[in-house]
């Protein structure tokens, strides 16, 4: 049975996280859930004595899953969430991949529930082994399906795999191919961005290079400047995407993610073209300078 107050808490967490990631224009999908009473009972029965009011507590009563389109957005998503909620570093798990062996890497973050949300939940009164925290799992969209299968059909029933190590390894191998596909996707879009840059197709170049959720095309004034002075377009193409995203996140810049605003932002921090500055609306310049 699901309690409506718990579902509201999970939904609020989801909406807050969606809002923060949307502010950056990150391409992703966000899901949430609250454990039901049945799920809680099953967890406690599966590992009797593991959780108690005075010892280890359950920290994932509420869970949010962020499925990123691109692997290299993981760091910026983590940093953004750490600025939004109180982070529990000791309880979180971020696996570092190794070169000598292969296994799925976890990015499971634990945060403290905002006080107002914790107070609005009723489940903490029914279970004294719950911590007032929630978990955020960050994955890529390509690996999301694999994790669902692995969790339900291997993690929850490990005994089914005990005498089948070859198939156990093969399941990990499927994940390896998906991780390779994640990196291949980035390389493909880098190549696409370069082709558009060489063809002076500026809107298409921005879309493939920065990979943000934006619509529309660059306005004719900016296009004219870029076509007239291709050195500006070259500097724009060379802007480091990670550094741009860090500027957006760290300075709490809140603007519609449009092709024009991406150009204005890149120019203000990196390109420094007076011609583009002259086309930047004064309210936007004020936002950048205040940030």
Q: Secondary-structure element order, as H and E?
A: HEHEHEEEHEHHHHHHHHH
For the largest beta-sheet, the strand count, sense and barrel status come to:
6 strands, mixed
| CATH architecture label name of the largest domain | 2-Layer Sandwich
Uncertain runs with pLDDT below 50, 5 residues or more? Answer: none
Strand percent estimate: 5-15%
CA gyration radius, whole angstroms: 23 Å
For the termini, the CA-CA separation is: 46 Å
Task: Describe this protein's structure.
The N and C termini lie far apart (46 Å). This protein has 13 helices and six strands. Helix 5 packs antiparallel against helix 6, helix 6 packs antiparallel against helix 7 and helix 8 crosses helix 9. It is an alpha+beta fold and 291 residues long. Strands 1, 2, 3, 4, 5 and 6 form a six-stranded mixed β-sheet that branches. It is globular. The chain folds into two domains: 175 residues, 2-Layer Sandwich (Beta Polymerase, domain 2), CATH 3.30.460; 92 residues, no CATH class. The model has no long low-confidence stretch (mean pLDDT 93).
Detail the topology: elements first, then pairings.
Elements: H1 4-23, E1 28-34, H2 37-46, E2 62-68, H3 74-84, E3 86-87, E4 93-94, E5 107-112, H4 115-120, E6 133-140, H5 141-153, H6 165-198, H7 202-210, H8 220-228, H9 230-237, H10 241-250, H11 259-271, H12 274-279, H13 282-290
């Amino acid at each position: 049975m699901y309690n409506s107050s718990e579902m509201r808490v999970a939904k609020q967490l989801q909406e807050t996280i969606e809002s923060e990631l949307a502010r950056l224009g990150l391409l992703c999908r966000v899901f949430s859930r609250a454990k039901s009473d049945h799920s809680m009972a099953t967890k406690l029965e599966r590992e009797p004595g593991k959780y108690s009011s005075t010892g280890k507590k359950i920290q994932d009563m509420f869970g949010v899953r962020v499925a990123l389109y691109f692997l290299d957005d993981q760091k910026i998503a983590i940093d953004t969430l750490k600025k939004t909620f109180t982070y529990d570093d000791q309880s979180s798990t971020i696996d570092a991949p190794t070169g000598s062996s292969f296994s799925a890497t976890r990015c499971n973050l634990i945060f403290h529930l905002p006080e107002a949300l914790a107070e609005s939940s009723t489940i903490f009164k029914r279970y004294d082994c719950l911590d007032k925290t929630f978990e955020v799992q960050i994955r890529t969209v390509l690996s999301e399906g694999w994790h669902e299968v692995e969790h339900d059909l291997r993690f929850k029933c490990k005994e089914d795999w005990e005498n089948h190590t070859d198939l156990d390894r093969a399941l990990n191998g499927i994940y390896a191919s998906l991780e390779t596909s994640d990196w291949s996707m980035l390389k493909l879009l880098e190549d696409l961005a370069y082709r558009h840059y060489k063809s002076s197709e500026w809107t298409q170049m921005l879309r493939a290079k920065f990979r943000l959720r934006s619509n529309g095309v660059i306005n004719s004034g900016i296009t004219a400047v870029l076509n007239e002075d291709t050195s500006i377009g070259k500097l724009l193409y060379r802007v480091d995407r990670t550094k741009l995203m860090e500027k957006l996140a760290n300075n709490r810049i809140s603007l519609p993610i449009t092709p024009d605003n991406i150009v204005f932002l890149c120019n203000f921090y990196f390109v420094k073209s007076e011609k583009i500055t002259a086309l930047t609306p004064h309210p936007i310049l004020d936002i950048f300078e205040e940030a």
